[in-house]
Specification:
mainly alpha; 2 domains
Length: 487
């Protein structure tokens, strides 16, 4: 089990790293070519796309992962259900395109853009079962390859169109080609084809868990995109473009870590859900591993936010830097709340996910009502940060009660890694802004130097403090890299 988990972690890491590298390279090139308004147009459509994908999945993907032994009927039922819903959702939004344009500044460009963009519902719906079958068997390698191929092809399509002056259409066709290539690859290489149809018996069994997950995800999606909706409808599409860029780049770290944890550990925890001692042992290891990776990544990219943006974009996206830094630190709380929710899901406590979601969304409502009157995007984002912090504290209390852990034990698992990362980030900031580079006048050159020095110094300091604090995950990471787990 340990070897299989380690290999799953390895391929998840390879998948996320390669995906994020390709995603980042494509994103940088497109951000340098396209305007903030182009990204604002697509940011407006992403609000509706998120809800469409949510309805297509309906929580069935998570339900399949939670079940110990899904049958062939279960997989086929979910496939045909997803496909049917995706077609219905696409038709509804196709005819609603003029209404969408009226919401966002009455910009009629959104009508044709949305009708093409929303084809991704059908394409992504076809890939849900294929992906979940591979995740259930911990065969992450094939998923990693499909993601890589899809990103390469879609990146090339988007960049080529952007260079020809296609504007926002470059981003639309990038999304559509990505969904098409990934789904096509999984069907060709996944090794599974449906042999049966849709069964009401299977639908009822999966629906019990799927409904709770869907309810939680629906609220999560609504409040996740409420800021994009507010900024795009009440401010301007350019402001939305800056926000979506900050949000996108801040999620590179948090989304990758969260995906790795979910793909690697939820199937594992579901297998030991009836063994309380083993479950607690795995929770402790996962907590420590999460802190070891999460804190240096998110605090590090927040500390190096300005040098990073100046290196990649010069001063074109400066309005997004502060938003990026706030959202990056906020990502820590998002990953931890997601991790705790997965603990509940793995032992079948799906209804408690809804409680956590109510708490989280209630905090966001309070934050929005408290900050929207300032008519300032940074203040809106600070409100997000405060809401996420309070949600984390309440979720910690709820999950500790559910799984039989003390809140101090959960905090003690991650405190050493947090301390090492926090001290390293502060010292790195002091060094790169100490005035050593005041004679450099090129903003891109200055940013590049600060970024390189910050990465080297920050990484070195984190390794040093991990050793000083006797963080076992550092030793285990080096052991794995040296191949000891393959014995």
């Amino acid at each position: 089990m340990k070897l299989k988990t380690a290999r799953t972690l390895k391929w998840n890491a390879i998948d996320r790293i390669s995906s994020q590298v390709l995603y980042a390279v494509t994103g940088v090139i497109l951000a340098r070519i396209l305007s903030p308004e182009d990204f604002g147009l697509i940011g407006a459509l992403l609000v509706f796309q998120a809800f469409g994908i949510l309805f297509v999945d309906s929580g069935f993907g998570a339900a399949l992962l939670q079940r110990k032994e899904p049958t062939e009927k279960d997989y086929s039922t979910v496939l045909w259900f997803n496909l049917s819903v995706s077609v219905i959702i696409y038709l509804i939004l196709f005819f609603s395109a003029p209404l969408i344009a009226d919401i966002f500044q009455g910009d009629k460009r959104l009508i044709p853009l949305s009708r093409v963009m929303f084809l991704t519902f059908i394409l992504n719906g076809l890939a849900i079962v294929q992906t979940n079958r591979l995740m259930k068997s911990m065969d992450v390698k094939r998923i990693a390859i499909s993601n890589t191929v899809g990103l390469v092809v879609s990146g090339a399509v988007g960049i080529a169109l952007a260079l020809t002056g296609a504007g926002a259409w470059a981003l639309v066709w990038q999304y559509v080609s990505l969904a098409a290539v990934k789904s096509g690859w999984l069907w060709l290489m996944g090794g599974w084809w449906p042999k049966t149809g849709l069964y009401l018996e299977s639908l009822k069994k999966i629906w019990r868990i799927g409904l709770s997950v869907f309810s939680s995800s629906a609220l999560n999606t609504f409040f996740q995109y409420i800021y994009s909706f507010i900024i795009g409808s009440l401010y301007s599409l350019s402001s939305l473009g800056f926000y979506t860029q900050a949000d996108k780049w801040s999620k590179i770290g948090s989304a990758s870590i969260s995906q790795i944890l979910t793909s690697s550990f939820v199937p594992l925890l579901s297998k030991v859900q009836d063994d309380n001692e083993a479950f607690h042992r795995y929770v402790t290891k996962i907590n420590r591993f999460t802190g070891f990776i999460l804190f240096p990544v998110m605090l590090g990219i927040a500390a190096l936010g300005a040098p990073l943006f100046h290196t990649l974009f010069e001063s074109k996206w400066d309005a997004a830097i502060l938003l990026f830094q706030i959202l990056s630190v906020r990502g820590i709380f998002i990953v931890l709340v997601s991790l705790y929710s997965n603990y509940l899901l793995s032992i079948g406590y799906a209804k408690r996910l809804f409680i956590i979601e109510i708490v989280k969304d209630g905090m966001i409502v309070i934050a929005v009502l408290s900050t929207i009157w300032f008519k300032s995007v940074p203040i809106l984002v600070w409100g997000q940060f405060g809401a996420s912090l309070i949600t984390f504290l309440i979720s910690l209390w709820l999950v500790c009660r559910a799984i039989g852990f003390s809140w101090w034990k959960m905090c003690a698992d991650i405190l050493p890694s947090f301390s090492a990362a926090f001290i390293s980030s502060i010292l790195t900031l002091i060094i790169i802004y100490s005035g050593l580079f005041s004679r450099i006048h090129s903003i891109q050159l200055l940013g590049s130097i600060q970024l390189c020095i910050g990465l080297i110094v920050g990484s070195g300091l984190y390794i040093l403090f991990c050793r000083l604090f006797h963080i076992a995950e550092m030793r285990e990471a080096f052991s794995y890299l040296l191949g000891r787990f393959r014995k």
